[in-house]
Amino acid sequence: MRKRFSSLLIFCTLCTSNMFAQVDFVDQDWKLTLEQSANEGKIIFVDTYTKWCGPCKKMDQRTFQDKEVGSFMNDNFINVKWNAESKDGAPLARKYDVRGYPTFLFMTADGKVIKRRSGFLKSSELIKLGHSVLHFGSTDHKTQVEKLLKQSPTDFSEISYFLSDNLGYKFAKKRDLYLQLYEYLQDKNDLSEDEIAVVIDNIYDLNQLKFAVKHFPNTKLDYDAHKNRNNQKSKIKSHINAEFKRALHSNDHKLMLELVQINLDFDDRINSKNLNGADKENNERLLEFYKKHKYQDEYFAQAEIRVRKYLSAYTPKMITEKDRLRQINKKRLAPKFDYQTPIYKTENQIRQKRKYAVQWATEFTRLSETSEQFFDQSEKLVVALSWAEQAEKYIDLPETRLVRAKILNRLGMKDEALYHVQQAILSELNDKELLEKLNYLKASLIN
Fold first, then answer.
1. Are β-strands 43-49 and 77-83 bridged in parallel, bridged antiparallel, or unpaired?
2. What pLDDT is recorded for position 273?
């Protein structure tokens, strides 16, 4: 009896130890959290996650369970979790422009972000980051910045050191301070590692983005430095993507073409080993831009590049093999006791089984469909028709036959158009919306 009691006592002690070891995340209304922060004088730590995010689960299972991490975070911060796809978490994630997971935000009581970090963090990394945030929170940056801005003559090395010591943090007049350093750096051919880090941390316009790309180092590094370099690379890429988005929404063709070159330059600087790299990405961006703003000839030129350089490079046989290997790998990676050979019956299940074939056929179809909408010239329509025909070699999709029928009808081949509509209607890959479109076209062809 005594032995059983001792064992139970040890078990309970371990459970209690584990309970208190983990980070304590408060579950309450966001306004209450802000009030608690103001009352307690503590900075808020937010872990933004999704249920499907692998690194998020890793944080929960490892880092947040660490005894030292739990003690440090619970003593110094108010810890909060936001599910970026939940009813309450999604609006907050959008408000604070969270784009990847996990994203960690350190915030003041007035809801201002002072530090942002993304990706999995080891225990030591999170504790180091937390100490840095606490140091920042206890420093009178306003007085220091004012002093640096007013100094005469300007000590650029001191400004660089100050900004380097506060990478990733947001504070008043940081931009004004950086602009002084930025003008000074224009005359330098080679920047130090610290100066490069400051440049990447302070990109406010297109010229500063170009400057960051120009000076981004392409030397080989050890593991820790390589990880830091990857973070810098992600920051620049994020700025490039944001500028692409701005060009798209503002219909700024000049900016779009400028960004295409910046993207190529950056790809060259980082020695990208991605197949086709920035070339392929630029093609996708330009297709989206020209389609949205109806640059018809430019769209068609990029569509031809897409077909010739990226789609036709993979034959139907190659894509079929990719799908076959994907199914084999799914079976191999799944736990033996949990895996059952799926029976592909529904439209969605069949499309999933032939994932790559559907992807290739869909790309061909979209290029064909947009060209059909843009052009009246028979020579352009004939090319668009050939793309739809190529799509069917990968997998016979009803939406492809629909596009093909529309083009055939416009080319005066009404009977052939009707044949493809009838075949599409019989397809097991239809959905309700697609069937309505097919029946509508069928009725117009018959009448």
1. parallel
2. 58
